[in-house]
Fold this protein.
Amino acid sequence: MILVEGLQHSFESLDVIADVSFSVDRGRFCAVVGPSGCGKSTLLRILAGLLAPSDGRVDIDGHRAVGRIGHTAYMAQRDLLLPWRRALANATVGAEARGLDRRAARTQSLGLFERFGLAGFERSWPHQMSGGMRQRLALLRTFVAGLDVLLLDEPFGALDAITRRDLQTWLDQFLTENQHTVVLVTHDVDEALLLADEVLVLSPRPGTISARVQSPYPHPRPSRLVTDADFISRKAAVLEALGQAGPRTG
Amino acid sequence: MNTVRAAMRETAPPALFVVVLLALWELWAGQSTSRNPVLPAPSRIWHALVDTAPLLPSHVRTTLTETAVGVLLGVSTGVIVAVVVSGWPLARRVLHPLLVASQTVPIQVLAPLLVLWAGFGLAPKIIVVALVVFFPVTVSTTAGLQNVDLEYIELIRSFGGGRAVLLRMVMIPAALPPLFAGLRISLTYAVAGAVIGESIGATSGLGLYIARSQRAFRYDQVFVGVAVVTVLSMVLFSLVSVLAWVLCPWQRQTDRST
């Protein structure tokens, strides 16, 4: 589980995160939405231990995690597949970097290639794969790292709308079968409500949590959920919280 | 069949061009041989090659040894300097002017001094070759290391990977293609560097063979020496290309079509 308390961060004199507290229980999925530059990615990088916050507390599975690396599997918006590794060798990058047994990681990855719709591409180079496949491979790498907590920074942000919708329903199914604690950062309110159990809305910089909207539907969820009346009312609540801040003028 | 035809299409035009050049040279020089011994015809060069063939292997061995040791020395110091320079900005500021300066000293000036300092043996030639190889390898490897995508580094770090893991999984593979690019450029001068060193003072080597032939006004033999140097350079160049092909499989062009 993830516990964040009184988190603050500034880059020199620029306050990016003002005061953020929340918790995500084990096996739960939390989405963070907010306008550009509200500190969403900074928040995720702090959770990943890549960035030490100016102030506040982060616990992951009961351990102090501020500035501590290797407790979470972090996935950036870019797929960051290593061009000098074939698909299978890219899948094991996280596990290898953690010092896990490479052969076991290979066996596990091979078993998952089919599940991730990548069967037959084990020996392909990243530049031979489509954007959607590359992103699935990056997700596969994140899972094979064998960590409970997944931090996803707009994993589908660079994909076209159709591929994106496919991957969302697919990820929802996969996570239903495999219990993970997830924090997802996204611009896409539909994506947040469709995948997450709780959506946190961040205000413009310096970021604070301006609303928490529950998404209490059972997993796996059908993609047509986005047209459900209750879903739409929750979406309206998120959009209103986002809109309250309003676009900055001047 | 298709690959044979493709290979023909690749090699036929340059081969044909060389044949045409040789024929023109033969025609022009063959007529004026008596008046112009400085440009012997290809047929005379061929005869000189056959005549002196028994002498050549020992000269080739000397030159190849100097080149190989010099290249290894130049590449290893180049890689070490690149690692230091790319990881330590102060080292870059201190070393960069020296690196450039080392490359502006003409080898023809440096080689006699090296012979004075290091004697008539292999050492001065090895140093010349190493100097020739060192700079391009250092510059391109440094660029390769400095251009590594920071997000790759962060990815490995986020999983808890330390320096050794980073070096093995990111830095070395990222630096290999630029290293080979630098090495390929410098190899074309490497053999020539050894030959220049030998022509100043040596007991064996192609440079000595060329210098002796020049003093004896045997220009046909001079051209034999030049031809052997050219062939050696091309063989080395191909060897390094094969090595790059083996070590950097993701860079192979043909893979894109499969």
